[in-house]
Amino acid sequence: MKPFFITTAIDYTNGAPHIGHAYEKVLADVLARFHRQNGEEVFLLTGVDQHGQKVQQSAEREGIAPQEYVDGVTAKFLALWEKLGIRFDGWAATTADKHKECVRAILTRLWEDKDPATGGSRWIYKAARSGHYSVRQEQFLTDKERGPDGEFGPEWGQVEFREEENYYFRLAEHREWLLGLIDTRSAEGKPFVIPEFRVVELRNAVEKLEGDLCISRPKSRLSWGIEFPFDPEFVTYVWFDALVNYLSFAPGYDPAAVRPPEEFLHLWRTVIHDIGKDILIPAHGVYWPVMLKALGFTDAEMPTLLVHGWWNISGAKMSKSLGNTVDPDMLADRYGSAALRYYLMSDIATGRDADFSEERLVQRHNVDLANGLGNLVNRSLNMTRKYREGSPNQVVIPEDFSAHLAANAAALSEYSRFMREGQVQAGLERLGDVVNRANALVDASAPWKLAKDPDQAERLDGVLTILILSARTAATMLLSVLPEAAEEILRQLALEPDSLAGEIAPGLPEGYRCGEPQPVFPRLELPAPPAA
Ligand code: MSP
Question: Between vectors from CA 297 to CA 211 and to CA 183, what angle results, nearest 5°?
């Protein structure tokens, strides 16, 4: 079976985690759990981006050393992932020696990869540049960035004129290759970018690509970074450092090897980078594939970028300066991490934006989980215990009900297909179908009436069997999103989950006896509004 390697963006450690960070990590965790459930060899890599100007400035504001500052923020991220049940296999913290050595080895290797015609490196060169520089965005600006009035807008913050020598990584000459990669890969089985609608955006950006990437910062203005191996006057630009985490923390990567080692490629060939839409262009869609190409990766070894959308607040961007960021830690304490995970997976379509709402979080939990699945499990078990002492008789499912199990089997296989595509919300909708169909069967067949009529005994056994099998299928589909709740349901049902690959069993196992129902999803309430 093919392995499954998923990474997330590594979060900047210049402030506490917010709901956007949590969403991306839960998404990766859910997909990793789905593939594990399917028996695949899985590796989930996540972590923190600890270098760069923003971190240096935040540490300065607090009056402490950058390392001390990032250690404090990193601890907050780790505690949150623990609380939210994010099960990762690799932790990428970019101040780790292992990572710094890898970045330096890569820079050395690219610097020493000489072009015989010129004697210089094929990938990196040093050049002086003068121009307008945005301090906030840490980049030189061109005329394209000027507003209609010819001035640089407020989004660039303080803009100053600078003349500086730096190291550059060649990008522009790989434009045609990149366009080819985007096109051929989107037509093949393993696309470069999903969802498909992002491809157009990336293509347009690459068509306009000009200029190379400045990959160094003079130490005189930024010291918090990885020192250049062949020039101690410079540190590495934070993106050139951060992207490398996907290699430095992957099992088996060797930066010195001309071709990536086979034990590394075994996992890497399946790699999916789970990232937000803001870091597709240019970092992951332009810099990263060219960096990989420079390191000897073939076109077939390029990653797939799974680009998710953003959680907004009433349609507006969440930001620290607007003071409207949502704290996932507080939400998990208030409603439980299961309700938060379920909301983040069920109320946004992967790739699209959504509006965050605490009311929706509570409503989703109460409607889908407490009233929907929770009620199904509860009444199925109660009726089975009441009418059959926990053991329905083995029956052939009545003809008019057999379509029910076939529909559940179809829902389960559609669920698996959506999960493989990273479409968790669509997968959860199939779970909802299974629950609704079963709850509708209870209402339509009225088991309490069947129980009073001895001629309907077989029919009652059939209905109870279908209800229990439906609850099992629903729990199977919930395992990756809410592992603890799903396991608790399976424990009460006294059943193993359905196989994700196989068909649904047509009946209950020999000698089956269900367990005792216990509430799994207690109803949630919004906090009372403050008294007037
Ligand atoms: N450090 C870089 C990533 C380097 S990856 C080699 C970075 N960090 S970040 O902290 O700003 O963002 C981390 C991730 O969170 C990104 O994928 C970003 O898209 C995502 N999100 C940030 N705000 C978000 C929302 N409001 N909603 C959903 N995800 C968002 O970029």
Answer: 65
At the topology level, CATH places domain 358-532 in Isoleucyl-tRNA Synthetase; Domain 1 (1.10.730)
| pLDDT, tens digit, 9 for 90 and up, residues 460-501 | 999 999 999 999 999 999 999 999 999 999 999 999 999 997
Question: Are 458 and 395 a contacting pair, CB within 8 Å?
Answer: yes
pLDDT at 188 over 70: no
Q: What's the pTM?
A: 0.96
Please report, for the chain, the start and end positions of each structural domain, with discontinuous segments joined by +: 358-532
Report the alpha-carbon distance of residue 455 to residue 56 in Å, rounded: 78
Model pLDDT, residue 97: 98
Measured from the Cα of 275, ligand 1's closest atom is: 17
Distance CA 428, CA 432 (A): 6
CA nearest ligand 1 atom 13, residue: 11
| Cis ω before 148 (30° cut-off from 0) | no
Q: Would you list the DSSP string of 131-172?
A: EEEETTTTEEE-GGGB-TTSSBPGGG-SEEEEEEEEEEE--G
Spatial separation of the C-alpha atoms in residues 512 and 508, rounded to whole Å: 6
- Determine the residue of 49, 76, 308 to mutate for testing ligand 1's pocket, defined as the one with the most ligand atoms within 8 A of the Cβ atom: 49
Q: List 44's β-bridge partners, or say none.
A: 6
For residue 242, give the ligand 1 atom closest to its CA. Answer: 6
Across the chain, which distance is largest between two alpha carbons, in Å?
94
Q: Find the 16 Cα to ligand 1 centroid distance in Å.
A: 12
Q: Whose CA is nearest to atom 18 of ligand 1?
A: 276
What value does the mean pLDDT take over residues 403-419? Answer: 96
